[in-house]
Automatic annotation (TrEMBL):
This is Rhodanese-like domain-containing protein. InterPro entries: GlpE_sulfurtransferase, Rhodanese-like_dom, Rhodanese-like_dom_sf. Transmembrane segments: none annotated. Gene3D superfamilies: Rhodanese-like domain. Residues 47-140 form the Rhodanese domain. It comes from the Eukaryota. The lineage of its organism: Eukaryota, Fungi, Fungi incertae sedis, Mucoromycota, Mucoromycotina.
């Protein structure tokens, strides 16, 4: 009986993740969200380019480390706080990231809907986990 309940719960979780992933893929395609790899981002930062890095993970996730100089603005408050960091009128490039690269797609789409130029918005492919796996510096 417990095994059946466990398997049923796993199935529901899988369906929810599938729906979420499908929604992110659809949003990325329809909104034309650009992605940047961790290697491309590192190269840009090394070349002196200064995109604003926005970390849309939740507080507990950020406490485990973040990309140096990133501004923590969790996905839940992004729209409320982003203009205190960079305004839609500026031409400043923005790179948003989360843990794995899905929430940041949705965050990028939200910024575009708020009036930020699509060409200036990118989502970090693979998110913070890809940054760490790439061996790049993190700060606490």
């Amino acid at each position: 009986m417990l095994r059946q309940l466990f398997l049923k719960k796993i199935k529901k979780t899988s369906v929810a993740l599938s729906r979420w992933t499908d929604m992110v893929k659809k949003t990325k395609a329809e909104a034309g969200i650009q992605e940047i790899t961790v290697d491309e981002l590192k190269a840009e930062l090394g070349a002196g380019e200064k995109p604003v890095l926005i970390d849309v993970r939740e507080g507990g996730e950020v406490q485990r480390g973040k990309i140096p100089n990133a501004v923590p603005l969790s996905r839940g408050v992004l729209e409320l706080g982003i203009e205190k960091v960079v305004t839609p009128e500026s031409d400043t490039p923005i790179v948003v990231y989360c843990a794995g690269g899905l929430r940041s797609i949705m965050a990028a789409e939200s910024l575009i809907r708020m009036g930020y130029e699509k060409e200036n918005i990118k989502s970090l492919k693979g998110g913070f986990e890809a940054w760490k796996k790439g061996g790049y510096n993190i700060e606490n």
